[in-house]
UniProtKB/TrEMBL annotation:
<keyword id="KW-0479">Metal-binding</keyword>
<keyword id="KW-0812">Transmembrane</keyword>
<dbReference type="InterPro" id="IPR017900">
    <property type="entry name" value="4Fe4S_Fe_S_CS"/>
</dbReference>
<dbReference type="GO" id="GO:0046872">
    <property type="term" value="F:metal ion binding"/>
</dbReference>
<protein>
    <submittedName>
        <fullName>4Fe-4S dicluster domain-containing protein</fullName>
    </submittedName>
</protein>
<feature type="domain" description="4Fe-4S ferredoxin-type">
    <location>
        <begin position="67"/>
        <end position="97"/>
    </location>
</feature>
<keyword id="KW-0408">Iron</keyword>
<dbReference type="InterPro" id="IPR017896">
    <property type="entry name" value="4Fe4S_Fe-S-bd"/>
</dbReference>
<feature type="transmembrane region" description="Helical">
    <location>
        <begin position="5"/>
        <end position="26"/>
    </location>
</feature>
<keyword id="KW-0411">Iron-sulfur</keyword>
<keyword id="KW-0472">Membrane</keyword>
<dbReference type="Pfam" id="PF13183">
    <property type="entry name" value="Fer4_8"/>
</dbReference>
<keyword id="KW-1133">Transmembrane helix</keyword>
<dbReference type="GO" id="GO:0051536">
    <property type="term" value="F:iron-sulfur cluster binding"/>
</dbReference>
């Protein structure tokens, strides 16, 4: 009885992990799964003091809250690629930021000079 319960819990956990990985791959952001949150990217970001935080960009993409993260300063990313060079896994938070900029209506409207409130 206990062994069956234990086995079913393990199978459910593995199934959820596989679903999470497949979801990230389908969203075309598999790199966020590999982020270990080592903060090496933060050490080299030239815009960290202004609010652009590469680690938060990766975390926002990982937990599906990238809009909020980007509106809080992530949109300042200038694609300098220093975060990729510092990352031990070679991940690129700037790619997540650039994809967000391409598909975000909030960012497009803020570029045009309209006043938009961040959520």
């Amino acid at each position: 009885m206990f062994l069956a319960l234990y086995t079913s819990c393990v199978i459910i956990c593995i199934g959820l992990l596989i679903c999470l990985i497949l979801f990230q791959i389908i969203k075309k952001t598999p790199q966020v799964i590999l982020c270990t949150e080592c903060r090496q990217c933060m050490a080299v970001c030239p815009l960290l003091s202004r609010g652009c935080n590469p680690m938060e960009i990766m975390l926002g993409a990982k937990i599906n809250m990238l809009d909020k993260t980007m509106k809080n300063g992530g949109y300042l990313c200038v694609n300098c690629k220093k975060c990729r060079q510092a990352c031990p896994r070679g991940l690129a938070p700037f790619e997540e930021a650039q994809m967000w900029k391409l598909r975000s209506s909030w960012y497009k409207q803020s570029i045009k000079g309209k006043k938009i409130k961040a959520a």
